[in-house]
Amino acid sequence: MKFALFILASWLEKDTSAQSRIYDEALEQVEFAEELGFDSVWVAEHHSSRYGIFPSLTPILSYMAARTKKIRIGTGVSVLPFHNPIRLAEEAAMLDLLSHGRLEFGVGRGSADYEYGNFKVEFDSRDERTREVLDIILGLWTTPEFSYNGKYHQIEKLTIAPTTLQQPHPPVIVASDGDQAIARVADFGDGWMAHAARSTPDAIEAGRRRLERLFAENGRDFSRFEVTLFGGKAERATTRTYADAGVDRIVYLAREEAPEATVKRLERWAAEVL
Question: What is the DSSP string of 113-129?
């Protein structure tokens, strides 16, 4: 079992100067998580929202990579319908190079309808757009002179630079809940990102069994597939239950708090589960 940290970076204060402090504290959390032996750190993309103030994940993850040496860095998630796939493919490749191959590329369609409204992107188009953007990113990472003719995006004989350090590409971890979403994971995911609030141990176990069958039907190798659970509790009993269900990594939510409180919290988590 691997253990990881999720940094949401909520901005709760009225004072705008608090934003710099939130970023600084996020960086301190990552450094200390690496010292304690956490496997990875994850950040979420949100727009025009105090819920999370990481609207672009490449800058903050590049900064985190520069401040650390071993801990893996993950997008949890990049909301694909909001992105130009060429630009995102190149930026993620650059991040993989800058981090010396530590990128975990978590992707999803997002669930905040107001963010879709702000971008003037139809909420009901999110499934199609997510599939197109990910198809293009994987194609650009693996195929020179890649071409694509989709409903929303068209590309003709494009070769990107830079390319990813990890080959054939960084692990693609697909966020999903429900039967249709499981099928999407099987199509192009190297891992499944589930959420503890919506995924019981029984649901995880059933989903993993179904994914293994779908991988076999698609002729894909399941041996290195991983299930990542967001929002797990730092308790030995809970950890054991999810491990038995087939979870490979549990990601704990870091709170917005003073660095001293974070240090104590991470130390308790490490003592309990690492």
Answer: HHHHHHHT--GGGHHHH
